[in-house]
Each structure stands twice: as C-alpha cells, then as structure tokens.
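Shall we go through a protein fold together, starting from nothing but its sequence? Label the sequence line and the structure token line clearly, so we can match residues to local backbone shapes. Would you write everything just below, so we can both look at the same thing?
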Amino acid sequence: MNEETKEDVVPQKKGSITLARLTAQPTQNGLVQISQAVLPMRTAWKVKNLIEKAQKESSNFDSLRQALIERHGARGDDKKLVRDSNGSFRIPQENVEAFNKEIVELMNIEVEIGTLSIAELDGKVELSANAMQLLDTLLVD
C-alpha cells in the first residue's frame, strides 16, 4: 500500500473495509472466487449479499474517482480529457497535489460490507495469501 494512505496502520473493525482494499484486484479476485464456490444455501445467501454490497461500494468509488479525474484532468483543445501513452488520464502538474489529496481521502473511506465465517466457506474456497490479507476484516473465525 502507498505510504501516504496509512492503510495498513489504521485498524479496521470486522465487517468493514477501506475503498482502497475493496477495489484492489486481489480483493476483487478473492470475492469472485468466493462467489463461484458451491456453498450451503444460508452461506450462499450471505455471500450474495456481501458481494452486492461490495459491488455497490466499488461502483460508488468508481463514480467519485471519475469525478475527480473530470475535475483535475488535463483537457485537449476539444475539451476532452487527455490520456497518456499508457491510456491513463493525464493530471497536469498544477493539479497533482489536489488530486492526490482527494483520491487518498476517497481511498481511505471505510465502508461496511459484512462478514463471512471461514468455517461457513467449509474449505470450498482457495484464496491467495494476498487476497486473505486484504479480506481479513471480512473473514472471521
């Protein structure tokens, strides 16, 4: 994690996760793996609800991130946002500090998603150590 976010230092309560962790690719992969497991009905219901909350929060994050890009991004003569050679939106140097401050604030927002018991997953889901670390506040013994 970026040192500026202080993400790994801030303790989180069970069932909540920062938007930085929620939108990280290993977290998303882990949630997909959990959602694809064949589980007992009660557990499948909990997983479905958890995934729906996670998707809603990820979508909200994406909308706000896009709004920040719209506000701070470089624009061409045609008033459209400019992309660099990698396809990323370009932020002019004079806007970088403000953009970074706001994106870090957004990424550090903690959202309530819920928890799943590791026992409920009944050994039917294999997750990478990275995904487990990122999902640690959502998985309980």
